[in-house]
Amino acid sequence: MDLVVFVIASLMMLVGAIGVIVNKHPVHAALSLVLTLFGVAVHFVALEAHFLAAVQVIVYAGAIVVLFLFVIMLLGVDSSEDLRIEPIPIQRPLAAVMGLGIVGLLIAAIVSARDVVARSVGTGLDVAGRPDATGTVVIDHDANIRQLADDLFSNQVLAFELTSVLLIVAVAGTVILTRKDRRGSPLASDGGEK
After folding, report:
1. Over its length of 194 residues, how does the chain's per-residue pLDDT go in tens digits?
2. What's the angle, vertex CA 40, arms to CA 34 and CA 97, rounded to 5?
3. In terms of pTM, does the model score above 0.70?
4. Does residue 169 fall inside a structural domain?
5. 3-state DSSP call for residue 28?
6. Count of domains observed in the chain
7. If we measure between CA atoms, which residue out of 27, 37, 32 comes closest to residue 16?
8. Pick from 66, 14, 74: which is nearest to 38 by CA?
9. Is residue 22 in a domain?
10. DSSP assignments along 104-133, one per residue
11. How many whole angstroms separate alpha carbon 51 and alpha carbon 11?
12. Contact status, residue 44 vs residue 50, Cβ threshold 8 Å
């Protein structure tokens, strides 16, 4: 059963990722991204990481994709652009260098991970448990969530709030950048709106 869930979720992710690349309409590409993010959430559920699955659906498939759609609608990217004209001439070589760097880091991570000792019993959710009177570890499935909430809303509360301010500034900046100059519009030359 686990193999079937893994294969179906992986197919969802692959079809969604290909859809993001292949779709020419940006709204359809964003909806394909939602399919990919739901596939990741299914993988989290299969790994019994229910909190991460909920965050994946609520934050990424919900809020972030809605933000993408909001920006797409504001920018009006339905018009086709000439891709042969580059506004910043160095961006393609720089992207190639960054891509090679990421591939190099991935290869280095794979090589260094081969030397790591395989996981033993007692890792993962068992670490979140507490030993009882007999010495056996009792798994507390909510301990990781409590630790995350404790850390997020105590030690990291300033960074958490700055992130929300950053998102608000990004949306406000998008709105300001997409506003059209109304003085040059045909309605402004007629003396106002009809």
Report:
1. 788 999 999 999 999 999 999 998 888 898 999 999 999 999 999 988 888 888 888 888 888 888 888 877 777 665 555 666 777 778 888 889 998 998 999 898 888 777 665 554 444 544 555 666 676 766 666 666 777 777 777 887 888 788 888 878 877 877 777 665 545 555 444 444 44
2. 85
3. no
4. no
5. helix
6. 1
7. 32
8. 14
9. yes
10. HHHHHHHHHHTTSPPP-TT-GGGGGSEE-T
11. 23
12. yes
- Which positions ≥6 away from 169 have C-beta within 8 Å? none
For residue 54, the domain's CATH number is 1.20.120.1200
Residue 23, classed as helix, strand or coil, is: coil
- Identify the CA nearest to 56 among candidates 42, 71, 66: 42
Sequential DSSP letters for 48-94? T-HHHHHHIIIIIIIIIHHHHHHHHHHHTTTS---TTS-SSTTHHHH
Contacts of 13 by beta carbon, 8 Å cutoff, 6+ apart? 35, 36, 39, 40, 43
- The answer to whether residue 67 is domain-embedded is yes
Q: Name the strand (E) or helix (H) holding 159.
A: helix 157-178
Quote the tokens at residue 100: 């090679």
Structure tokens given for 125: 């959710």
Q: d(Cα 147, Cα 46) in Å, to the nearest integer?
A: 22
